[in-house]
């Protein structure tokens, strides 16, 4: 077994998901000619679902199987779908005197048209009304949540009730594309993933990218026999057909094993996209096979969209509150600065200090050959050495880290560990800085299974498997401080401008 953390970009990230030439068997995939809608390729399960063998359908226009009186309408729909966004329509399919209805989704490509057919599960008007009432109800409930956490938890609970899935998770990506479960609702006998972090390679980059092209990924039953498209090679492009946008696309083996290891049979995930970035996922699990209707999937899409908008608003609100608070601290600090005899005193002494503004454990000001300190800081000699390192290598604007020892190993030996550092250069070449320190915050990260074993390599060096345990694996993170928030960095920059302005006025 080899251990390595670069699976996301290297191994898992290079599995080609779209050129597999295989689909899941819960629908039929058709590749149509752009001009006359003749069937160029079709999945081999056509016989099962459409009651006409795949070979027989090849080369025929799709309309040959649509009742006469519907021809015009269906042809117009297929031709006109280009502008619409994957909205399914009902397709009547007539073979051997028997008519079946299918939900059809048209996915126009450059050189051909993809059509996905799934057996229609038409809903009653009454059902629709209840669906609508439910969506309204959930939306209202979500609005009452105060924090992001609360919103995520409430959503999980309501979404579980609404969809009937055994488990619903709200999963938020971190800056390294690991993900943390921030909301969970589940059947009692299922594993508890609340608060756990999962490594980036669990949802590798190309899988994440596909969420910008598809509103969900549905795997109704991991125990399926994949179905081939025939002919294997697309006759127009002379290549495998790109299945990126299809729902039916067959699932990567490593992920099917993953689902088995999680002891689930069905899975459906939907993206939470905020400001054009993949913020997180809704992940739904079911112990047995589960095949939600198109209508339910559409409603799930809608609710996830509503959640995304509310999360965005909630986050903005939280940032705004912090900004307002920092703004008022800044104003107080400025008053002090302009009334005190020297600027170090203005920053470090008095009712409000830079420690309050930037949530520091200690601070130092080095100016005109003197050094003043406040709170928990490294000792005089250590600060002197740190300043000369900064003067040599960190003169280009503010330097911010939440793990100083990673950049400057010497600092590991400080008596008062200063794991976080923010510098506000006054005159960096002269070694004049304001330094803000944050103490070490030893953190325990609870992983969903050991991330170092995310991939189990076989001795042949080629075959591999996902990890088979999602038991909590505790990692202790040392030598780092609490992270710096965007708003705090803005406050530091604002403070820096104000300081420079004041010092300029004094000098000239
Ligand atoms: C796909 N992995 C996925 C998907 C999810 C996860 C949600 C999308 C498909 C789906 O909805 O089932 C991961 N699901 C999670 C996580 C949780 C969850 C983290 O519920 C947390 C609770 N996977 C591995 C390794 C590799 C890998 C080692 O563990 C690579 C070598 C790959 N995962 C992988 C691939 C896909 C995937 C390739 C895409 C599968 C597909 O769409 O065909």
Q: How are the strands ordered across the major sheet?
A: 1-11-3-2-6-5-4
CATH architecture of the domain at 340-441 and 479-507: 2-Layer Sandwich
Q: Which residue ranges are poorly predicted, with pLDDT under 50 across at least 5 consecutive positions?
A: none
The CATH class of the domain at 340-441 and 479-507 turns out to be Alpha Beta
Strand tally is 22
CATH fold annotation of the domain at 340-441 and 479-507:
Beta-Lactamase
Gyration radius, rounded: 29 Å
Content-based structural category: alpha+beta
Q: CATH-wise, what's the superfamily of the domain at 340-441 and 479-507?
A: PHY domain
- Which distinct ligands sit in these coordinates? biliverdine IX alpha
Mean pLDDT: 91
Q: N- to C-terminal separation?
A: 67 Å
What fraction strand? 25-35%
- How many helical elements? 13
The largest β sheet comes out as: 7 strands, antiparallel
> How much helical structure, as a percent, in the residues?
25-40%
Indicate the overall shape: elongated
Strand and helix layout:
Elements lengths: L21 E2 L4 E5 L6 E5 L2 H5 L3 H4 L13 H10 L8 E7 L2 E11 L4 E7 L5 H19 L4 H16 L3 E7 L5 E8 L10 E2 L6 H6 L6 E3 L7 E4 L22 H9 L4 E9 L2 E10 L7 H46 L3 H6 L5 H4 L4 E6 L2 E6 L4 H14 L5 E3 L2 H4 L10 E10 L4 E8 L3 E6 L6 E3 L6 E3 L5 E6 L8 H22 L1
Antiparallel strand pairs: 1-11, 2-3, 2-6, 3-11, 4-5, 5-6, 7-8, 7-13, 8-9, 10-12, 12-13, 14-15, 14-18, 16-17, 17-18, 19-22, 20-21
Helix pairs in contact: 4-5, 4-8, 5-8, 8-13
The structure holds biliverdine IX alpha (BLA).
């Amino acid at each position: 077994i080899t251990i390595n953390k670069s699976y996301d970009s290297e191994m898992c990230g290079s599995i080609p998901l779209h050129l597999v030439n295989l689909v899941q068997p819960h629908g039929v995939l058709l590749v149509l000619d752009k001009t006359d809608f003749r069937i160029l390729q079709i999945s081999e399960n056509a016989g099962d679902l459409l009651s006409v063998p795949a070979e027989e359908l090849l080369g025929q226009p799709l309309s040959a199987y649509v009742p006469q009186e519907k021809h015009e309408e269906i042809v117009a729909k297929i031709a006109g779908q280009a502008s619409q966004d994957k909205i399914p329509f009902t397709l009547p399919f007539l073979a051997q005197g028997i008519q079946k209805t299918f939900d059809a989704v048209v996915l126009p490509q450059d050189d051909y048209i993809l059509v996905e057919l799934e057996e229609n599960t038409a809903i009653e008007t009454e059902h629709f009304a209840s669906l609508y009432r439910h969506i309204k109800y959930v939306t209202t409930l979500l609005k009452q949540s105060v924090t992001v956490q609360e919103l995520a938890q409430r959503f999980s609970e309501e979404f579980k009730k609404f969809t009937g899935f055994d488990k619903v998770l709200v999963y938020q990506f971190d800056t390294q594309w690991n993900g943390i479960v921030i909301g969970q609702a589940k059947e009692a006998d299922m594993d508890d993933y609340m608060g756990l972090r999962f490594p980036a390679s669990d949802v590798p980059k190309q899988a994440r990218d596909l969420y910008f092209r598809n509103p969900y990924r549905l795997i109704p039953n991991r125990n399926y026999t994949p179905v081939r498209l025939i002919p294997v090679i697309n006759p127009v492009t002379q290549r495998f057909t790109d299945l990126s946008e299809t729902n039916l696309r067959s699932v990567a083996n490593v992920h099917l094993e993953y689902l088995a290891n999680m002891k689930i049979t069905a899975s459906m995930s939907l993206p939470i996209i905020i400001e054009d970035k993949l913020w997180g996922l809704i992940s739904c699990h079911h112990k047995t096979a589960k095949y939600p209707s198109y209508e339910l999937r559409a409603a799930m899409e809608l609710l996830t969209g509503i959640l995304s908008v509310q999360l965005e608003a909630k986050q903005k609100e939280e940032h705004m509150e912090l900004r307002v608070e920092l703004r008022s601290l800044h104003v107080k600090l400025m008053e002090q600065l302009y009334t005190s005899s020297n600027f170090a005193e203005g920053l470090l002494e008095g009712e409000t200090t830079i420690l309050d503004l930037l949530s520091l454990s200690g601070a130092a000001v080095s100016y005109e050959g003197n050094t003043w300190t406040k709170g928990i800081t490294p000792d005089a000699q250590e600060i002197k050495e740190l300043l000369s390192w900064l003067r040599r290598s960190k003169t280009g604007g503010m330097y911010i880290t939440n793990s100083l020892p990673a950049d400057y190993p010497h600092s590991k030996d400080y008596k008062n560990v200063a794991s976080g550092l923010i510098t506000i250069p006054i005159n960096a070449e002269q070694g004049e800085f304001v330094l803000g320190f944050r103490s070490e915050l030893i953190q325990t990260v609870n992983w969903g299974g050991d991330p170092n074993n995310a991939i189990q390599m076989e001795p042949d060096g080629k075959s591999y498997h996902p990890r088979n345990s999602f038991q909590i694996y505790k990692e202790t993170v040392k030598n780092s401080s609490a992270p710096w928030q965007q708003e705090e960095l803005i406050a530091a920059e604002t403070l820096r401008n104000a300081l420079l302005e004041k010092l300029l006025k004094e000098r000239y």
